[in-house]
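Morning - zinc ion inputs below, output right after.
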Amino acid sequence: MSERRNPAETPNECQPSDTLNVPNRRDFLKSLLVAGVVGASLLSGCARMKTDIILSEPSWRDGHLANREVLNVAKFIKDRYGVVLLTDNPLSSVEKLEKAVLLIGKQLAKYPPDLIYKSKIKKIKITEPYSLGYSYGGWISIAANEVSSQLHHEIAHEIYKSRGRGEWDLFLKHWGSLNAKGLNSYSLANCRPSPRPVGFTSWYGQCHLLEDIAEISEGLFASISQIEQICNEDPVVAKKVRMWKDELYRLTNGRIGPQYWEDLKAGKVNEKYWDKH
Ligand SMILES: [Zn+2]
């Protein structure tokens, strides 16, 4: 069990984050070594909410994210996409946090800003050491060391959550009909680690139809060459990929179209891409 901090010397975790007395980066890292990881206290709802730190707030940026490149990326994410970055555990590793911010900037730049606005994504929380990703009502929570995959998966969830259920009914019905009848259906019984099942990009897609869509989207944005390879050998995956690409084309008025996928594969989609496309 880790040593607990002295309450007289440390901020109350239930105070609003903007009232916290912010130590400088060196003191901050030192306090980590003295106090250990906050641990169980972060698991309570109160502590989790109140220790959320908005990374775009000047006090925290200046105190902890000293790397100029990181500051610029946090600003780019806020200004271009209207998304605020948060973390609930800056004590763990500033370097890890900085790396995660840079990666989020790089991965988010793959989406036209309009799509993120339409999806109503407002906040991305970087968690560490927790490793699960989730999303809810405009919030996305991702693990610091899983940014490249989880971000795309959770963005896909928010894309369809932001649409009216009626708008998706036909789409979902059609998607579900692509799987071979009686084989690899969506169920908890199939929801367990296994080699890639036929018709899916990963075992996790079998857990639920919406997870299947999120996994396809994650594959496309995180590792398109690998997905194309799977499409060559699996016609069901190829149809699902086609459907999701068509949907993205429709949602972005063609900005995510054939040329985009070529550019993504060629590594040409960066922070400046949407200025010209
Ligand atoms: Zn999911």
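Note: The first helix runs from residue 25 to 35.

O.
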